[in-house]
Specification:
The complex is a heterotrimer.
Chain A lengths: L2 H21 L3 H24 L8 H31 L14
Chain B lengths: L2 H36 L22 H11 L10 H18 L25 H9 L2 H11 L3 H32 L4 H7 L10 H17 L11 H4 L10 H25 L14 H23 L5 H28 L4 H26 L14
Helix pairs in contact in B: 1-10, 1-11, 3-4, 3-5, 3-10, 5-6, 6-8, 6-12, 8-10, 8-12, 8-13, 10-11, 12-13
Chain C lengths: L2 H21 L3 H21 L3 H26 L14 H21 L14 H9 L3 H23 L2 H7 L1
Helix pairs in contact in C: 1-2, 2-3
């Protein structure tokens, strides 16, 4: 298990998250994919910390802790927005939510 | 994977897998008899030694129930999600048994373990405990969803809302102990309470213990917070459609979760494993730990027989509007008491007065909740 | 079961979980695959000796974010949606873009830059993390607390709507 393996894994996970964010129609699935991307980035941070020269400085876990907290806040607000949008438009299909675009 | 490692893992885990389910069987018997006596009836007293008429006060009842559940037909509703229907009891049971490993129970055969099994000496045992207890909510959702039954789903959502809301006062009360000991390690917390300096005897510890216990009752869906499994409400809530062995697994999971949370309460507040005679016979510490767990379980059974059930909106209001601010106030009180700890009797009396005030208000609010409050209904999400 | 096999098993579970989560039609199955992904990631954090982060990952993501996603699914739409397409009209462009990003991210290992080869010994301790949070990073911690409070209040306010709007809708 070297740093290479962890980086390749986190790159693959990030790309999977990006795939989900770009291709799905449902807003909640786009939020899942954003969470996948954030987790892949966390994995990257921890992997770099583990193989760094001074792991006693704990830069990896600290940064990851902040990322986890911010991601939790973001998903809470994002889902609240999705619920509010659903109440107004009665759908969360991203192709139907196009009132801002011009026909 | 050497033979010694396998042998040591087995020595460390198999006793837990044997002791706690047998304690579970005994607890179901105690519960049925105790509830029956509180309700002025007798309880099971016919099953005893099989194939004879010797009834040992109904002690054979748990075995009889177990055999019955093993042989019942396993019904899965048509159109239900079979994978989740199968997984839900497993996901309910595994976290409950896993957290038993984090408790500082020292069995006398632990000295035969040569290879140090590091998993149980985790530095962050308390936070792993809460993390794994949080997985229980998923099992409830899976059960409610997989039953293809509107009422099970509603019962499951209510149960999750209850469990998630009461996790916060639970964790905040435990945080007080962690803050004052300075470590998340269960062994450190146990040794900080040596010499009968149990945290429950301090003012902030008493308030924290009461809040922790109430939140633990709600986490494990016990009365008076047992709306999710109330028979007169939603038949059996999220496990209506379960029969036979899967129901037995849910039941086992619920009781083991009760043991695990009582174990954590004993570790954090009641001085894990300490009691008279431990210095001479070290094996007695495990016995005292189990005895204290059993005392807390008896308290839970007593409360079940005595208090009426809370309605779902009363339950949620109690958690968010009352227990949460109170646990935050308790953290402030603990910090204050820590700073005033050497400074004379007036300061000590002030902290005791503050903590008794907290307890008094808790009792008053719980009492007031059982009075009916008729207000016009407000639907926030359904329009 | 040494570290290599554990790493491979956990990475396969993580990749499969993420793939199922983004491609599944049934949203509840997708969320549970996502939770499996979070659990595999927590296992990977444990392998990389970040104990506290593994516990925080399980506590926050599986215990809280997963439940939040499940509630949002229950509150927003018919979960199975038979007969509807689940991929949007521009899916090919999106897939190409994500493959391009994967290629760009994999370039450093492909170019074999010199990366540190072996890991320094780490003593996982929560006390050190706490000391770092309190001494150099206390301002960040307080700002994070403010952020979480603001997010909590905002989420509740946004999801509930205002009474005036509901009165007008009636």
């Amino acid at each position: 298990m070297t740093l290479d393996h962890c980086l390749i894994l986190s790159a693959v996970l990030f790309a999977i998250g990006l795939l989900g964010a770009f291709t799905r129609r449902n807003a909640v699935v786009v939020l899942f994919s954003i969470e996948i991307m954030l987790n892949a980035a966390n994995l990257n941070l921890i992997a770099y910390w583990r193989f760094s020269e001074n792991p006693a400085q704990l830069s990896g876990p600290l940064f990851t802790l902040f990322t986890i907290a911010v991601a939790a806040a973001e998903v809470a607000v994002g889902l609240a927005l999705v619920i509010a949008v659903y109440r107004h438009f009665k759908t969360v299909d991203l192709e139907k939510l196009d009132t801002l675009s011009e026909e | 994977m050497s033979w010694e490692l396998i042998r040591d893992i087995l020595i460390a885990t198999v006793p837990l897998l044997v002791i706690f389910p047998s304690l579970f069987a005994f607890t179901t018997w105690v519960e049925r008899k105790a509830l029956a006596r509180i309700q002025n009836r007798i309880g099971p007293n016919k099953t005893g030694v099989p194939c004879t008429r010797i009834s040992l006060f109904g002690l054979g009842q748990p075995a009889a129930d177990g055999i019955k559940m093993l042989f019942k037909e396993d019904i899965v509703p048509r159109g239900a999600d079979r994978l989740f229907h199968l997984l839900a009891p497993i996901v309910a049971l595994i976290p409950a048994m896993l957290v038993l490993c984090f408790l500082p129970l020292e069995f006398p055969w632990a000295k035969y373990i040569q290879v140090p099994v590091q998993a149980f000496l985790l530095d962050g045992a308390v936070i792993f405990f809460f993390a794994i207890t949080g997985i229980n909510t998923l099992a409830v959702f899976m059960a409610g969803w997989a039953s293809r039954n509107k009422y099970s789903l509603l019962g499951g959502m209510r149960a999750i809302a209850q469990m998630v809301s009461y996790e916060i006062p639970l964790v905040l009360s435990a945080v007080i102990v962690v803050m004052l000991v300075g470590s998340l390690n269960a062994a450190d917390i146990a040794s900080a309470q040596e010499g009968y300096q149990w945290f429950v005897f301090t003012p902030w510890g008493l308030a924290a213990f009461v809040i922790f216990f109430i939140a633990a009752l709600a986490e494990t869906n016990r009365s008076p917070f047992d709306l999710p499994e109330a028979e007169s409400e939603l038949i059996a809530g999220y496990f209506t459609e379960y029969s036979g062995f899967k129901f037995a697994l849910f039941f086992l999971g619920e009781y083991i979760a009760m043991f695990a949370i009582s174990g954590l309460a004993v570790t954090l507040f009641l001085g894990a494993g300490e009691g008279p005679g431990v210095a001479t016979v070290p094996a007695l510490s495990a016995v005292w730990f189990l005895a204290k767990i059993f005392a807390l379980i008896s308290l839970m059974i007593w409360l079940r027989g005595t208090l009426p059930r809370l309605r779902v909106d009363q339950l949620m209001a109690f958690a968010w509007k009352f227990l949460l601010p109170l646990s935050i106030l308790n953290i402030l009180l603990a910090g204050l008491a820590w700073h005033l700890r050497g400074q004379g009797t007036v300061a000590q009396a002030a902290t005791w007065a503050a903590s008794l005030l907290i307890l008094y208000f808790t009792a008053r609010v719980l009492d007031g909740l059982s009075r009916p409050q008729a207000r016009p209904r407000q639907y926030k999400y359904a329009e | 079961m040494n570290q290599e096999t554990a790493f491979w098993i956990l990475s396969v579970v993580a990749v499969l979980g993420a793939l199922v989560a983004v491609r599944q039609r049934n949203l509840v199955h997708g969320v549970f695959a996502l939770l499996l992904f979070f659990a595999a990631l927590a296992g990977l954090f444990l392998l990389l000796m970040a104990e506290f982060i593994a516990a925080a990952q399980v506590l926050v993501y599986i215990g809280a974010v997963g439940i939040l996603l499940l509630f949002a699914i229950m509150l927003t739409e018919r979960v199975t949606g038979e007969g509807k397409r689940i991929f949007s009209r521009g899916w090919l462009g999106g897939a190409l873009a994500s493959f391009a990003v994967l290629g760009a991210l994999l370039l450093p290992p492909l170019r074999a830059t010199v990366l540190p080869a072996h890991a320094q010994p780490v003593d996982p301790s929560v006390r050190a993390l706490g000391e770092q949070l309190m001494n150099p990073y206390v301002v960040t911690l307080e700002v994070l607390a403010l952020l979480l409070t603001a997010a909590l209040i905002g989420a509740v306010a946004t999801a509930q709507g205002t009474a005036k709007r509901k009165g007008a809708a009636k």
